[in-house]
TrEMBL record:
This is histidine kinase. The keyword Metal-binding does not apply. It catalyses: ATP + protein L-histidine = ADP + protein N-phospho-L-histidine. It comes from Kribbella flavida (strain DSM 17836 / JCM 10339 / NBRC 14399). It is found in: Cell membrane. One of its GO terms (molecular function) is phosphorelay sensor kinase activity. Its EC number is 2.7.13.3. Keywords: Kinase, Membrane, Phosphoprotein, Transferase, Transmembrane, Transmembrane helix, Two-component regulatory system. The chain crosses the membrane at residues 26-49, 189-210.
């Protein structure tokens, strides 16, 4: 039950704290921390001073009582009966004797100190130890009572000559604690006052620190709200090297990444609109021609078939282009749900697929096993694009003569490096830096089919798998593309 109540109380406090602003929490934390420290110091100081005052008082009373017991002046009934305690310089205390028989003897015209079982035990045991105790109520008389063993001399016996006449007793001394209580009360007021001033000062200091320290965070919050409201991705100025400055730098880096992503999306949408417009216009033109011809009596069967084949080819190109755009639109930094793949099998399947589409080419293929972690569909698409590109540029526009070597595509896979070399005209030096750009097509490629996205997809797949792709002209002629992927043992799942 108690633990449940504590849990509910803690949950309630946490909920209340979470509702406060960070500024208020910093101020409250500073005030609570200083208040706790001040309370700890105040309690320690109060307890230390109180114990020291009581220790000094006890030591003084015991010394005075023991000296009085030794001299025998205050233990003589004749002295007590005729001389008040003021005459002995004991006006601030009460004095009395507690005999072992239970009789109480006090000084003349004086109040007896509190006497009880503790003092009676000292009188009866006559041990060398003194007893110390506090007697009284909180708001009434308050005394510190000291009792030491003593020998009482009755008035009718000359105790100086006859020591056997002395009776065992306890000399009891009680001093009022009112001066100490007043001192401790004043000390408590001073400590509370200084503690309150300290807590207020800590709260003010915490408020000033919160305002100064959170000013960059307020500026960062305003910048984030401005971005959300206006979609302007301008970085905010940063000064300093503290944690908030690092947060601002990370925020600026996020804005830059977001700006780059927006630029890529705009460029992709613009290029896609441009590239989609061409096949759609062609399809629409052919359909308009077919409709107009049907209104005039129709076309010859061979012309109609040619027109339909043209429309079908344009639709296939449009389908391929949409698939490529969908692939590139997945702007993810790395492959999700990767699995262990044998790269040589992926390349072999791609070679079989492309070889059926280009039966007139010779294929020189040598593949070594190489495991990788990745997306088999995406890797297969990338390798197929590389082979399709090589087959497209290796196929001559005109049939080769008897003295010309046959067109060939060379494929090698060794240690995770896939090299595809065609027998085409190669890549112009001005086009080499741009062959992997989206929708980029060289002047030689504009007469051939394609969308200009195939090699961009290859680069996209390589980067998602932690690899790289680069192009160059082979020493023996033709273009050579090299795709490198890391081994499965060096990749994390």
């Amino acid at each position: 039950m108690v633990s449940a109540n504590l849990a509910r109380t803690q949950s309630w406090w946490q909920e209340k704290l979470h509702r406060l602003s960070l500024h208020a929490r910093v101020t409250l934390l500073a005030a609570v921390a200083v208040g706790f420290a001040v309370a700890l110091v105040s309690v320690s100081a109060y307890v230390t001073v109180r114990q020291q005052m009581y220790r000094n008082l006890d030591s003084s009373l015991i010394d005075r009582a023991e000296q009085a017991a030794k001299t025998g002046v205050l233990t003589n009934q004749q002295n007590l009966a005729t001389i008040p305690t003021d005459a002995f310089g004991l006006s601030d205390i009460r004095l009395g004797l507690y005999l072992a028989t239970g009789q109480k003897v006090g000084a003349a015209d004086s109040y007896l100190p509190p006497m009880g079982p503790t003092e009676l035990a000292i009188a009866q045991s006559q041990s060398n130890e003194a007893s110390v105790r506090t007697v009284g109520t909180r708001n009434g008389a308050h005394f510190r009572v000291i009792s030491v063993p003593a020998e009482f001399c009755p008035i009718m016996h000359p105790c100086q000559q006859d020591r056997e006449a002395r009776l065992p007793a306890a000399l009891v001394v009680a001093q009022s604690l009112d001066p100490i209580d007043r001192t401790l009360h004043n000390l408590g007021i001073v400590l509370w006052a200084f503690g309150l001033v300290g807590v207020i000062g800590a709260a003010l200091a915490g408020n000033a620190i919160a305002q100064s320290g959170l000013r960059p965070l307020v500026r960062l919050t305003g910048a984030a709200e401005h971005v959300a409201r206006t979609e302007e991705l301008r970085p905010i100025p940063v000064s300093g090297s503290d944690e908030i400055s690092r947060l601002a730098l990370a925020f600026n880096a996020m804005l830059q990444a977001l700006a780059r992503s927006q630029d890529r999306q705009r460029r992709l949408v613009g290029d896609a609109g441009h590239e989609l417009r061409t096949p759609l216009t062609s399809v629409r033109t052919n359909l308009d021609l077919l409709a107009q011809a049907d209104q005039r009596g129709g076309l010859r069967p061979e012309d109609r078939q040619q027109l339909l084949d043209d429309v079908r080819a344009q639709m296939d190109e449009l389908t391929t282009l949409i698939g490529d755009l969908t692939e590139l639109a997945r702007d993810t930094p790395q492959v999700r749900d990767a699995e262990l793949i044998e790269l040589s099998n992926v390349v072999e399947d791609a070679v079989i697929k492309v070889r059926r589409r280009a039966p007139g080419l010779e294929w020189d293929v040598q593949l070594d096993p190489f495991p990788v972690w990745g997306d088999e569909r995406l890797l297969g698409r990338a390798v197929t694009n590389l082979l399709d590109n090589a087959a497209k540029y290796s196929t001559p526009d005109e049939p080769a003569g008897e003295d010309q070597p046959p067109a060939r595509v060379t494929v090698r896979l060794r240690d995770g490096v896939l090299t595809v070399t065609d027998s085409g005209p190669g890549i112009a030096e001005a086009d080499l830096p741009h062959v992997f750009d989206r929708f980029y097509r060289s002047s030689e490629a504009r007469s051939r089919p394609g969308s200009g996205l195939g090699l961009a997809i290859v680069k996209h797949a390589a980067e998602q798998h932690g690899g790289m792709i680069y192009a160059r002209n082979a020493p023996g002629g033709g273009a050579q593309f090299t795709l490198w992927l890391p081994h499965a043992a060096t990749q994390s799942r």
